[in-house]
Amino acid sequence: MPSSAPAPALSDATASDSTLRRFLHGLPGVDAVGLEARAASLGTRSIKTTAKAYAIDLAISMIDLTTLEGSDTPGKVRALGAKAVNPDPTDRTTPRTAAVCVYPDMVATAKAAVAGTDVKVASVATAFPAGRAALDVKLGDVREAVAAGADEIDMVIDRGAFLAGNYMKVHDEIRAVKEASGAARLKVIFETGELSTYDNIRRASWIGMLAGADFIKTSTGKVGVNATPANTLLMLEAVRDFRAATGVQVGVKPAGGIRTSKDAIKFLVIVNETAGEDWLDNHWFRFGASSLLNDLLMQRQKLATGRYSGPDYVTVD
Q1: Residues 6+ apart with CB under 8 A from 169
Q2: What is the SS3 assignment for 97?
């Protein structure tokens, strides 16, 4: 695939609305057919049993175990935290998940549930999932989550502003949220299913990275089209090229629609073949998922025992 790395100096890209627009529209256009063909091709690669066992454990360690429902209760969040810390009570060699992801008002409960472990607590913020709120409301959302102990913030961009071409507003809001996040790592959600084109996904990726995102994330999981191999491949190209241009590494998080071990392994192959081994770590790659963990645990058990335990083997989220 052709590089998406831009020629202009990045230091000047965000000097003004006009320079940012010129920079973003100067990025190479995405060959949609070629992108989808490469993603499909990588998805057909098979791996040996020993590599599959490694990939399953790696995928478990990359999950942001998530509950983002209006019906969330402290009990549900505590159960989620317990599952993140000890995904398979019958096998203590099972890796912990990377994080649990909750709404800001549930952060304190989640922190207590994972206390004493390396499981992070992530919180969605900035009027998730629509992002339709005044900036001071969004920043208040972030500060509430950080004050409660969130290690990571998952923000949503203003898709309306982006689609209207108001790129600097999107950039400046990300910068403001980054500042409000303090030491918490910031994941910037684009809602790729609403951005319509691959060119827009590439532009949004560069806006996020230029504004200081620690991760760029496909989706909220609340719309019809979420993470796909193609849009994740495109975002991996962007972080690869951004590091080549700046020396700064940015993570990627596909979220929504990744439900099986087979799906997860396809994404890990895409990571390895596109960005490289440096991203094969939960500090730089995550899965936003709830049901994925159960399938990974069942496949892990099958590899260990030769028997498929079925859905009753794991807890139902």
Answers
A1: 158, 161
A2: coil
The amino acid occupying position 261 is S
Handedness of CA 192, 167, 249, 282 (dihedral sign): negative
Residue 204 CA to residue 46 CA, distance in Å, equals: 32
- Given 214, 217, 263, 295, which residue is catalytic? 217
Q: What is the mean pLDDT of the chain?
A: 93
- Per-residue pLDDT of 41-56, as tens digits, reads 998 887 877 899 999 9
Torsion of CA 29, 269, 299, 257, to 10 degrees: -10
The residues facing 229 across adjacent strands are none
Residue of 120, 138, 253, 266 marked active site? 253
Q: Per the residue annotation, which of 88, 141, 151, 154 is the catalytic one?
A: 154
Q: Is 217 a catalytic residue?
A: yes
Instruction: Please give the model's pTM, rounded to 2 decimal places.
Output: 0.93
26 vs 157: CA distance, rounded Å: 22
Q: Does 105 qualify as catalytic in the annotation?
A: no
Starting at the edge strand that comes first in sequence, how are the strands of the sheet with 185-189 ordered?
251-253, 215-217, 185-189, 152-156, 120-125, 99-102, 63-66, 287-289
Residue 154 designated active-site: yes
- In tens, the pLDDT along 276-301 reads 999 999 999 999 988 899 999 999 99
Q: How many residues does the chain have?
A: 317
First to last CA, the chain: 39
